[in-house]
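Can't paste images in this forum, so I'm doing it all in text. The chain is below; anyone willing to post the predicted C-alpha cells underneath?
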Amino acid sequence: MSAAAAAVAIAAAGACLLVLANAGGEIVELTSTLHDLRQQEPWLVNFYAPWCSHCKKLDPVWRDVALGLHEAGSPVRVGKMDAIKHSSLASEFGARGFPSIKLIKGDLAYNYRGPHSKEKIIEFANRVSGPTVLSLSSPEAFEKAQKAHDTCFVYVGGESPLKEKYLEVATELIVYTYFYSATKEALPEDVILYELPAVLAFKDETFYVFDEFEDGSLEEWVNRERFPEFLFIDSITLHDLADTGKSLVLAVLSGTNIKHDNRLKYMVEEVSKNYRRNFHKQFQFGYTDGNIHINDLIMSVVDVPSVILVNTSSQQFFLPEGDLRSAKDLFTFITSNLAGKLEAHGGNSPYFRMKRLLYDASTVISAVFQQSVLLGLFLYGTPVVVFTLICY
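Text version of the structure:
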C-alpha cells in the first residue's frame, strides 16, 4: 500500500472511530475531519476556548446533552472543538463568541441562541436536524403539534410564490420555532380561511393570519409572532425582542417582595390577554427576574419591583408616574404612550449613541477582567505600556 493510500485509510478509520465513539453518547473532540463528517450526519458542536469560564460551566451540561441525544436514538452526533487551536475552522463556521453552539448539517451551520440547559439544547438539535417543514395530514396530528409548542407556523395551500418564500423563511428561522404545512381539512373547525394559500401563526390558544399588505415581509412577521404574548424574558430573549420592532411592557421583579412581584406580574399578563386586540401588533408583554438585563438595555437603573415600557425602535423608555394598582391603570399607561402623552427617557440621539459606545466598551472590559485578571492586564495593559514608552 502506498503512503498516500495508507494516509487516506488512517483518516477514514479515524473518522469512523470518532462516529462510533459518539454513538455511545461520548463527546468527540473534532478537528478538520468535521469537513467530511458533516456530510454524513448532523453534528451538534460546541466551539470553546480553553480559558473561557462560561465554556467550563457548559461542560457538564454538554455531557448530559450527548447522553440525552444518544438515549433518545437521535441521529445527531455531539462534538466540541477548540476554537483557539482551530481558529480558521471556527471562523469558517461562524463561531465568534465562546462558547458558540452550532448544529452543522451538510453545508449549513445553525447558531443556537438560548439557555444553556440540557432540555433546550436537545430541543434545538432535534428541531433543526430534522425536516425544515413538517407535514400535518389530520386534525389529530395538528392538535398534537399545537399542544407540543408554545408557538408554531403553518402553511396551507398548494404550490405558490408564498410557499417558496415560506420555505426560505423556515430555513432561516428554524433555529427559533416550528414550521408545518397542512391541508385545509387538517385545521380545527374554528379556523376559517377565506382564501388560499395562507400562513398562520398559532399561539396563546388563538391564531393569526399573515397579511402581506398589513404585516410587511413574511420573515419580519414570523420574527415578531414567534414569541408568546406573555413570557419570561432573559438577556437573550431581550436582545431578540429588540429586533422585532415591538415595544416591550415588562414587569421587573425583585425576587424578594414576592407579594408585590406577583401582583405586577399577573397584572401585565392580564392586560396581555384581555386587551390582545388593542395591543398585539405594537407590544410584547413579559417579566424579568431582577433589573440587570433591562439596566444594560436602557443604560439606567430601574427600580424593583416595577413596570417599564421600552420602545425598541427609538430606544426610549417610559415609567409610570405613580403606582399601578390595577390592569385598568396599566391599560391607561399604555394608551397614554400610544397617544404621545408620556415623558420619554433615553433615546438614540448622538449623545445616547456615544453613551452606548462607552457603556458597551466598559462592559466588555469589565467582563474580561472578571474572567481573568491576567488576560485583562495583557489585552489592555500592554497597549498602554507600549504607548507610554513611545511617548517617553
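The first helix runs from residue 3 to 23. The chain has a mean pLDDT of 87.
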